[in-house]
Amino acid sequence: MSVLVNDSTTTAAERPPAKAPGHRRAWVFTIVAGVIALIVNVPLLNAVLVSFKPDGEIAKNPISLPTSPTLDHYANVLYASGYDFPRFFANSAMIAVGTVLLVLVIAIPATYAIVRLNFGGRWIISSASGLRLLPAIFFVVPFFILFSTLGLADTIPGLIAANTFLNLPLAIILLSSALGDIPQEIEEAAAVDGASIYRTLGSIVLPLLAPTMVAVSVLVFIFSWNDYLFALVLSTSSATPVTLGAANFITSTGIRWGDISAASVLSTLPPLLFAVFAQRYLVSGLSSGAVKG
Amino acid sequence: MPPTVAERPRSSATERRKRTTAAVILSLPLILFAAVFVIYPLASGALTAFQSSTLLDQSNEPNGIDNFVSLFRSDGFAKAAGFTLGFSAAVVAIEMVLGFALALLMNRAFPGKKLFFTLLLLPIMVAPALLGVMFRLLLNGDIGALPALLDSVGLSVSLFSPDSVVPLLVVLDVLQWTPFTFLIIYAGLQSFPKELLEASAMDGAGYLRSLTSVIVPVLKPVLFAAFFLRAIDAIRTFDVIYVLTAGGPGTSTTTLSIYIYKTAFESGDFGKAAAAALVVLVCLIPFVPFIVRRISSTGMEAKK
């Protein structure tokens, strides 16, 4: 949402002339917003703090900051203790990147055909929105049976397919509304110049769609990185992603709280980095009314 | 669009055939994918609901409505439905009010706004399952900061006891998803006509009245979208609760999603799980076209 970004810059520019009493009142909002921002992030901050505490300190003073911070838990999780965590992390990365690519490859040409070449009609877009609203749990049993039959159970391609299923509707919705905003005259001019439909799509439409493609990629990456339900059902060991792996840490390693917190912090890092650095795309994608939980 | 009108008559039959061929080729990946991973699972899921099928034996003998009979005879399904509806109603109501208040609070300039805006969005990006793990770190009786904090002020509550677990889960859901309702409503406020806001601020009638008589009516479509998107997601809640309580103690926090999952993969009764999923699906489908219409119209407005 560009409105949003513009707005925050203009208000920043407007601030200096503000009168003194108004200025003092503004700080009240700073404090209130700061406290709320802190509260909603308490679980995350707590996990970060625990991950830097030596084992002895974790149980002794749960509330305080780490007095002698350590990186041991991160070392344990990443290489020292022989956990499967690095493999889970690699699985998640492959699943998320693979899903982004597959979603784009399927959604872009199809959306172009639907919106510009009037293929099938608008009902496809509407049913994509509808599909997003149906509970994913309905598909758990049929997917389990289907994936066992196809040999996709506990494989990376299998989880890529499942996450593509979850995210395609969102991609089609966002791409179709972006296509609707691109003036058709440009494509018509290209057609008059003799460009084929594929060339028009590849060299004229794709560059214009680039910002939306970035938004879709960021959202799809985060959502497939964060998936848990399908990972739980469709992976047993070799395709296990971090969400499942980190949740299993608790039972499989007993009470190694420091390692668990380091693992959960590391696993949350990729989506959080996107949240910070690609915020503009996230906000536009999420607030155009199409979101997954 | 004059150029379009001018060109259409020129496009010959071969031109049109070319476009159709291209459309089919471009849509082919979607058609194939949807056939295998959407249409087929929908059909086979609906079919499984009328078969005796288990984790170990998928011979799929048709058994009529036996699955539905056993579903409605056992009180597990009704209990899960009741818990899911109650839980969803509570969290969505609280998240709408808090998200709206937060959006109004953030809808002005103050120092540090950009930073806090980013921080407020972080919980939405954390995987619910990982947030469940983090909640366990925070709430654990031995090492958790919250029990320690409560202990130090003389309160000793067992957070996961049957009495406190449901309110606890409501609070946790509110912590994660209030940022979401906030984001949707805040985005709506950005497209709110500034003059209207300023006019109502000048008006001596008071903030509360301008809120109820100006802001809420104009924001209605956005509030509606936030409400339904959250409600739909709340109804299918699985990850956080499954990681934290696995539906317990007993079945007191079993949502419909957890019930269906457990029926399928712990009891191994695919037929009954598919029947439960079908009932949920059939109950939700009537709302879908309605919501899609409302949400897609707000999507348009938000962009303008």
What can you tell me about this protein's structure?
The complex is a heterodimer of chains A (293) and B (304). Chain A is mainly alpha-helical and 293 residues long. Chain A has a single domain (80-287), classed as MetI-like fold, CATH 1.10.3720.10. Chain A has helices at residues 2-14, 20-40, 42-51, 55-60, 72-80, 85-115, 123-133, 140-150, 156-181, 184-192, 197-226, 229-234, 242-252, 257-277, 279-287. The longest helix of chain A has 31 residues, at 85-115. Chain A is globular, with a radius of gyration of 23 Å. By secondary structure, chain B is mostly helical. Chain B starts with a helix and ends with a helix. Chains A and B meet through helix 1, helix 2, helix 3, helix 6 and helix 7 of A and helix 1, helix 2, helix 4, helix 5 and helix 6 of B.
> For the record, what is the CATH homologous superfamily label of chain A?
MetI-like
Secondary-structure class of chain B:
mainly alpha
Shape of chain A: globular
CATH topology of the domain at 76-253 and 284-303 in chain B: MetI-like fold
Please report the distance between the alpha carbons of the first and last residues of chain B.
20 Å
Secondary structure class of chain A reads mainly alpha
Count interface residues per chain for the largest interface.
A-B, 117 and 119 residues
Bin the helical content of chain B.
Answer: over 70%
Supply the CATH class of the domain at 76-253 and 284-303 in chain B: Mainly Alpha
What Rg of chain B is obtained from the alpha carbons, in whole angstroms? 25 Å
CATH topology of chain A: MetI-like fold
Architecture of the domain at 76-253 and 284-303 in chain B in CATH? Answer: Orthogonal Bundle
Tell me, rounded to a whole number, the average pLDDT of chain B. 85
> What is the mean predicted local confidence, pLDDT of chain A?
84
* CATH superfamily label of the domain at 76-253 and 284-303 in chain B: MetI-like
Rg of chain A, alpha carbons: 23 Å
Family (chain A): Belongs to the binding-protein-dependent transport system permease family.
Keywords (chain A): Cell membrane, Membrane, Transmembrane, Transmembrane helix, Transport
Membrane topology (chain A): Multi-pass membrane protein
Domain ABC transmembrane type-1 (chain A): 89-278
